[in-house]
Amino acid sequence: MSTATDSRVATFPFPFAHDTYRYSTNVEPAGGRVVTAAGGWGEHVVDVDERYLTELAERDRILAADPTRFQALPHMEIAQWDAMLAIMRSLSASYPRTMSLERDGGLWRWTNHALDLEQAFVHGERATLPEPPLRFIGRQIQEDVVLLDQREGQLWGDAGLVTFAADWSLRFDVGMSFLQIHGPVPRIHTEGVITRAQSFLMRLESGQQFRRTNWTLTVDGRLDTSTETYPEWGRDRRTLADGPLAEVGERLHLRVEVQHLIRLGASGAIMFLVRTHMLPFTDIALVPAWAQRLHSVLSELPDDMAEYKGITRIRQPGIDWLADCRTRSGS
Amino acid sequence: MLVVGSLSDLTDDVRHLRLVDPGGAALPAYAPGSHVVLECGVGPDGLPRRNAYSLTGSGVEPDSYALSVRRDDTGRGGSRWIHALSLGDSVEVSRPRSAFAPVSTARHHVLVAGGIGVTPILSHARAAVRWGRSFEVHYVFRGGDGPHLDDLINLCGNSLQTYRGSSELWSTLAPALLDRPLGTHLYTCGPAPLIDEVHDRARAAGWPPQRIHHEHFGIAALEPGTAFTVRLRSTGADVEVPSGTSLLDALEQHGVAVPNLCRQGVCGECRVPVAAGAVAHRDLYLTEDEKAAGDCVMPCVSRAEGPRLELEL
Ligand code: FES
Fold first, then answer.
1. According to DSSP H, which parts of chain A are helical?
2. How far is the CA of B242 from the centre of ligand 1 (A)?
3. Of all atoms in ligand 1, which is nearest to the CA of residue B265?
């Protein structure tokens, strides 16, 4: 095992606590370390790891090709400033050697040594930044960001910078309510999970931070599987399903989102940070407890949920590969 | 925990306090119109007294939480406790909670304040100036100068109108309600009759309910209400709730623990499902739809509409 693989496995947020999976409002306070069979994760709200520069370059490439990955309705100006400061504070608290935020009266100074970047700005003054605040800071973190405005007893997805979306699109969803955005999720409305999640979020107090995980499967470790680029990646599912079983372990990835939910201050908006982690099945198999649990979750998952996650075609090859791998290691 | 960083008297009975972090740390920012819950000593029942107070700042990167408290000599004692505080005293303060925030998509904001109800309106006005929002303030108060009048004059200039009584207010506000642009939102904080009248007149002038907002204060002065009986589903036990005793108090005296925080109908912590019977909702937490559904109650302030109520407890 290489060191990179080593640390990737050790810090992977393996999401399954049980042998079956159902949607739930699985939120917990942010910041605590979660111990896994291979290591642990979860100390930092905004997480910088060894893929920092690679993923930021990927984000810039996607953003340059499609500037609509950044969206901000005009009334989200204050929320953008709030989000930028909250992210800067989080980074400088977690990585004091490389990041710092200083304030001298009305003048703020942001330093990011990892990018060799220094920026002075005046809070609320657009002209003091090279680009919109959310875009500016969003290009310095590996997380996708969505900002939700709270009004009329609902939450509205009114701004964001999303380049690593799993089968959805910020451009299509911007301006929609939280319930509309989650509209197509099977079972969810009948089980009230989304409505409960929304009431929970709407009650968060200033500065409160929670987190949850979500997961799916992705072929070839591709970060950008947004609706817009479907023509580029949709085919991968078929070639995986029709291809040799031996290739599945390298190509198929368990994709886990660590989502942080943070109540911002002056705007009262909710910030969603979504960090995507991916691990190929070959690496999952390095941790036998994970391989076994993933096998049972995928086998048991009801069809409508598999359909919603977009894994109808690729889950069976995944199940087969895991079963095959167990037989091989058992013999 | 915060400490009193400065004190001043705004009028005969209104005191202004700035609460700061003892170590000088920055405090969490908050949305305009937010309130904090203060622990104001211990009441006669031996339980901490908790009162909610609006913050008067803009909420942007605050170095203190400022609030203004009118002494109420007939109240439960919370305001007198605050008036007895000295510089440097410590106070238990909750995180700011937002229940009266400006609507970010509004084209124009009409802010109406009555008396000490000016506190969240001042917060809105500060933020509106800070971010260049279109707004106007209508401030009605009795006798002398209203609290924070000078602050509002400095902030608002021509966007401020002041009145010495209800008829003065309505001679200006009534026509204003008829001609403000579509997409205007209306916010009122003050005594209940003012809130009710603004609401009723705005509805009559064609304002949809989603554009009318209000923040009560002096919730502690709720009517004592009539006595009723509550049945607990799980055990079938009946609990009597006398006039002047809250449903929450009655449940607790009966040994039923209900999570709670504000005991004022604002925080949403004490929500209990209702199995049968009509609820007289008096809280500020549930939405109008939730109240209409009638399947839950905030027992810290709300009561039965009739003689009986049955709870899923
Ligand atoms: S205790 Fe806060 S709403 Fe009842």
1. 3-10, 52-65, 77-94, 133-138, 170-173, 178-181, 188-191, 193-202, 230-242, 245-251, 281-284, 288-300, 303-308, 312-330
2. 19
3. 3
Q: How far apart are CA A38 and CA A6, in angstroms?
A: 9
User: What does the block give as tokens for A190?
Assistant: 């009948």
Amino acid symbol at A103: R
CB proximity B96 to A under 8 Å: yes
Tokens read off for A20:
């079956």
Residues contacting A300, CB < 8 A, separation 6+: A19, A20, A21
How many other C-beta atoms can be found within 10 angstroms of the C-beta atom of residue A222? 15
The partner residue sitting opposite B28, judged by closest CB among A75, A151, A265, is: A265
The reply to whether ipTM tops 0.90 is: no
- CA A323 to CA A317: how far, in whole Å? 10
> What's the distance, Cα to Cα, between the start and end of chain B in Å?
34
CB contact under 8 A, B30 and A206: yes
What is the distance in angstroms between the Cα of A300 and the nearest Cα belonging to chain B?
34
Q: What's the full length of chain B, in residues?
A: 313
Contact at 8 Å (CB) between A317 and A241? yes
B249 within ligand 1 shell (Cβ under 6 A)? no
Query: B residues 128-147 near A, CB within 8 Å?
Result: 130-131
CB under 8 Å to A249, separation ≥6 — which residues?
A: A280, A281, A282, A285, A321, A325
**Contact with chain B for residue A124, Cβ under 8 A:** yes
Q: What is the pLDDT along chain A (331 residues), one digit of tens a residue?
A: 567 778 899 999 999 989 999 876 677 889 889 999 999 999 999 999 999 999 999 999 999 999 999 999 999 999 999 999 999 999 999 999 999 999 998 899 999 999 999 999 999 999 999 999 999 999 999 999 999 999 988 899 999 999 998 777 788 788 888 878 776 666 654 556 677 678 778 878 888 898 989 999 999 988 888 888 888 888 888 888 899 999 999 999 999 999 999 999 999 999 999 999 999 999 999 999 999 999 999 999 999 889 888 899 999 999 999 999 888 776 4
B30 touching A (Cβ < 8 Å): yes
How far is residue B255's CA from residue B138's CA, in Å, rounded to a whole number?
A: 47
Give A205's contacts in chain B (Cβ within 8 Å). Answer: 94-98
Query: Token pair of A217, please?
Result: 């499967």
Cα of A127 to nearest chain B Cα, Å: 15
**Interface membership of B107 toward A (CB under 8 Å):** no
The 10 Å Cβ neighbour count of residue B111 is 29
Could you tell me which residues come within 8 angstroms of residue A135 by beta carbon, excluding any fewer than 6 positions away? Answer: A70, A72, A161
CB neighbour list of residue A245: distance below 8 Å, 6 or more residues apart: A317, A320, A321, A324
Q: Is A8 a catalytic residue?
A: no
Structure tokens at A303: 């069809």
Catalytic entry in A51, A89, A212, A326: A212
Question: Are the CB atoms for B282 and B301 separated by under 8 Å?
Answer: yes
Closest residue CA from atom 3 of ligand 1: B265
